[in-house]
Amino acid sequence: MKVIIDCDPGIDDAIALSVLLNDPFFDVKLVTTVAGNVSVKKTTNNALKISAFFKSNVPIAAGAAEPLIKKLEDASNIHGESGMDGYHFTDKIGYPYHKLL
């Protein structure tokens, strides 16, 4: 099944993205990121790190930096500074395993 996933990778979306990238039933064509519990810069960085960890070459595109209707509520006090507190990836994102559009 061809999939485009739009997400804000904190822990919950990181798990969903991990499943999609590793289940042969899914053919992930694109990952887009948005601000959620943390900024879009941080969620995009999380998506890049997850993609590199699984040696995926799926393109990743940063999207909306804030919600369309209400003010962004940063929840890093709950989810950690990165939005994925407790999970540590290398700082090197890892060409050729990622592609930021």
From TrEMBL:
Domain of life (superkingdom): Bacteria
Keywords linked to the UniProt accession: Glycosidase, Hydrolase
Record-linked InterPro entries: I/U_nuclsd_hydro_CS (IPR015910), Inosine/uridine_hydrolase_dom (IPR001910), IUNH (IPR023186), Ribo_hydro-like (IPR036452)
One of the Pfam families matching this protein, by short name: IU_nuc_hydro
Signal peptide start-end: none
Chain ranges of the Inosine/uridine-preferring nucleoside hydrolase domain: 3-88
Coiled coil: none
PROSITE patterns per UniProt: IUNH (PS01247)
Gene3D superfamilies linked: Ribonucleoside hydrolase-like
Protein's UniProt name: Inosine/uridine-preferring nucleoside hydrolase domain-containing protein
Organism from which the protein derives: Oenococcus alcoholitolerans
